[in-house]
Amino acid sequence: MGYQDEQILKAKRELKEQEKKKTSQEAMDKEAEESIYDEVTHIIGKEVAFKRRSIPELGISIYMPESFFQFAHDISKLIYPAGNTPSHIFGGEEINFQMSLDKTIYPLPGSGMKEFVSMAAKMLEAVGPKVRVIEKKVEKKEEDYLGMLSFVSKAVDTMVYNIQFYANIDGVLLVGNINFPSKYKKRLIPLAKEIISSMELIKED
After folding, report:
1. Which residues of 50-64 are buried (b: 16+ CB within 10 A; e: fewer)?
2. Are the C-beta atoms of 163 and 191 separated by less than 8 Å?
3. pLDDT in tens, 144-164
4. Which of 40, 49, 75, 141 could serve as 146's disulfide partner, Cβ 3.0–4.6 Å?
5. Strand segments (E) across 142-188
6. Considering only CA atoms, which of 47, 85, 39, 89 is closest in space to residue 68?
7. Is 147 helix (H, G, I), strand (E, B) or coil?
8. Which tens digits make up the pLDDT trace of 25-55?
9. How many CB atoms sit inside 10 A of residue 122's CB?
10. 3-class SS string, 128-145
11. Where are the domains of the chain?
């Protein structure tokens, strides 16, 4: 009798786990229908409102969560201990991704974007087994081009999904990156691409 009771309890636990997974999947599917342009967006169960933010020193505006704040320089250096710290890093306390932006001094004509993205992919792959390139993409955006490079990198305790993007701003290269734990990629890849596509030049009056 004890054995049968144990089997019944096991079956109940398995059924409960299946129902939990089904509920979680339904919630994820519903979230996937939402956009950064909606009044409220759900990200892994959290309500997030997105808003366009102007960054005059970079010459752009871009959508990001209203709760995002720019990290202080000393905090940014801790995130990038090896150097090459981006000038702007944004994040929030309860949101599962960060965004960095950096306007370089290097000229990059739009016609050279495809070649640049291919070169950047090769450089990342040369870093070693900790980096794996997933996707390379160049698309026309107004009168110029927008490059995107998706790759997975290994952090201390998790795999990180990165979508790096490149644009020609005032004749020089702007490099951005949105990163998040790979386990959230199904939800966050579409949102990250929407954020990147929302980037616009600040037009002078």
Report:
1. beeeebeebbbbbbb
2. no
3. 899 999 999 887 788 999 999
4. 141
5. 144-154, 159-169, 172-181
6. 89
7. strand
8. 565 677 888 999 999 999 988 899 999 999 9
9. 10
10. CCCEEEEEEEEEEECCEE
11. 32-201
Amino acid (one-letter) located at 62: I
- According to CATH, the superfamily of the domain at 32-201 is Mog1/PsbP, alpha/beta/alpha sandwich (3.40.1000.10)
As a whole number, mean pLDDT of residues 73-95 equals 83
Per the listing, tokens 């020089």 go with: 172
Strands 144-154 and 200-201, by their bridges, are unpaired
Helices in the chain by DSSP H: which ranges? 2-31, 73-79, 113-126, 185-197
Grouping H, G, I as helix, E, B as strand and the rest as coil, residue 40 is coil
Higher pLDDT: 130 or 162? It is 162
For residues 149 and 124, is the Cβ–Cβ distance under 8 A?
Answer: yes
- The CA-atom distances, in angstroms, between 73 and each of 23, 81, 146 are 41, 12, 27
